[in-house]
């Protein structure tokens, strides 16, 4: 009788430990899925902002994205890098100043949403770093941009 109780107890302990392992795996799987969703969301937040010709103003369509970016920076402890660019139409110095205005406009908006100024760095590039040909309207459109980079700080 004593042996049967010990055997039964061992079986119960074994059963519970197997189920506990399954629960742990499920929790790990859930965490992995949550992390990949966050990575996808961050990838979307760091897509380039494109601009109209000769304009430093952010397009209305991007404000929701910038609101989400500000929230991520504040809530998840990120620093932001904003790299301003212009197409090759116009003078070198003019495009340099325009690219700076584009990046600074985004910075000011993020600060207005609660992001600390010390967490945002802007760098103008003018027309020196194209990502597409400046020979076509489509290429010039892609070159008129602000690139957004995020870096996790602390933990």
Question: Could you explain how this protein is built, in words?
Answer:
There is one protein chain. The protein has 155 residues and is α+β, with helices and mostly antiparallel strands. It has 2 domains: 1-45; 49-152, 60s Ribosomal Protein L30, Chain: A (2-Layer Sandwich). Helices cover 55% and strands 14% of the residues. It has helices spanning 2-45, 63-76, 92-112, 137-143; strands spanning 49-50, 78-84, 120-124, 145-152. It has a 4-stranded mixed beta sheet with strand order 1-4-2-3. The longest helix has 44 residues, at 2-45. Residues 19-25 and 29-37 have low confidence and may be disordered.
Write a concise keyword list for the protein shown above.
60s Ribosomal Protein L30, Chain: A, globular, Bact_OuterMem_StrucFunc
Topology:
Layout: H1 2-45, E1 49-50, H2 63-76, E2 78-84, H3 92-112, E3 120-124, H4 137-143, E4 145-152
Parallel strand pairs: 2-3
Antiparallel strand pairs: 1-4, 2-4
Helix pairs in contact: 2-3
CATH topology of the largest domain: 60s Ribosomal Protein L30, Chain: A
User: How are the strands of the largest sheet arranged?
Assistant: 1-4-2-3
* Beta-strand fraction estimate: 5-15%
Q: What is the makeup of the main sheet?
A: 4 strands, mixed
What's the short version?
The protein has helices at residues 2-45, 63-76, 92-112, 137-143; strands spanning 49-50, 78-84, 120-124, 145-152. The protein is of the alpha+beta class.
């Amino acid at each position: 009788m004593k042996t049967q109780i010990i055997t039964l107890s061992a079986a119960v302990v074994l059963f519970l430990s197997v189920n506990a392992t399954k629960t742990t795996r499920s929790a790990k799987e859930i965490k992995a899925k949550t992390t990949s969703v966050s990575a996808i969301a961050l990838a979307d937040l760091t897509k380039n902002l494109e601009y109209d010709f000769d304009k430093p103003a952010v397009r209305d369509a991007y404000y929701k994205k910038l609101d989400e970016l500000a929230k991520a920076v504040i809530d998840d402890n990120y620093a932001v890098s904003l790299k301003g660019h212009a197409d090759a139409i116009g003078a070198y110095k003019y495009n340099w100043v325009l690219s700076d205005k584009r990046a600074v406009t985004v910075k000011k908006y993020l600060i207005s949403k609660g992001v600390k100024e010390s967490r945002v760095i802007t760098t103008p590039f003018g027309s020196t770093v194209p990502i597409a040909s400046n020979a076509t309207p489509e290429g010039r459109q892609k070159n008129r941009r602000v690139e957004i980079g995020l870096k996790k700080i602390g933990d």
